[in-house]
Amino acid sequence: MNSLGFNKDPSSTTVVVAMSGGVDSSVTAGLLKKEGYIDNFEILGDTKKDISITLKYYKGSPLINKIEKITKQGCRVYSSVDEIPKTIGGLGTTILSTSKGVMSDSDAREKKVGGEVLISVF
Fold first, then answer.
1. CA 110 to chain centre
2. Nearest Cα to 85, choosing from 66, 64, 106, 99?
3. CB–CB of 113/100 below 8 Å?
4. Is it the case that residue 39 has pLDDT exceeding 50?
5. Do 22 and 43 touch, CB atoms closer than 8 A?
């Protein structure tokens, strides 16, 4: 049984996610792959409104326990490089939209750039 409650091998579990239409969704999926949270992703269809994500597991449990949207429509959250939040004390990843593109918190600190805090993943 996989983490979604289906009687299916966890290694073959994929999730289809509806995108908001912005480029940030596919870039965020790329960052989740780069950071090791997912195995793979694919943008689906002619309208490119959905992403198929293959989840990554460790000892039968998904590596993603929770994704929390930080910035919301009408309530944007911005952070300077010195105040970028650390998800669970640095065990997770925060994804930001910066003037140099969408990147993880560690990349933003390395490039000394702040930005809009999009999501935290752990």
1. 19
2. 106
3. yes
4. yes
5. no
- Enter the pTM of the model: 0.78
What is the number of residues in the chain?
A: 122
Token digits for 46? 């002619």
Q: Which two tokens stand for residue 114?
A: 């702040």
Q: What is the structure's pLDDT at 15? A: 72
Rounded to whole angstroms, the Cα distance separating 60 from 74 reads 38
> Within 13 Å, how many C-alpha atoms sit on residue 6's CB side?
9
If one counts every other C-beta atom within 10 angstroms of the C-beta of residue 105, the result is: 21
SS3 per residue for the chain: CCCCCCCCCHHHCEEEEECCCCHHHHHHHHHHHHCCCEEEEEEECCCCCEEEEEECEECCEECCCCEEECCECCECCEECHHHCCCHHHHCCEEEEEECCEEEEHHHHHHHCCCEEEEEEEC
User: What are the residues whose beta carbons fall under 8 Å from the beta carbon of 97, sequence distance 6 or more?
Assistant: 24, 115, 116, 118
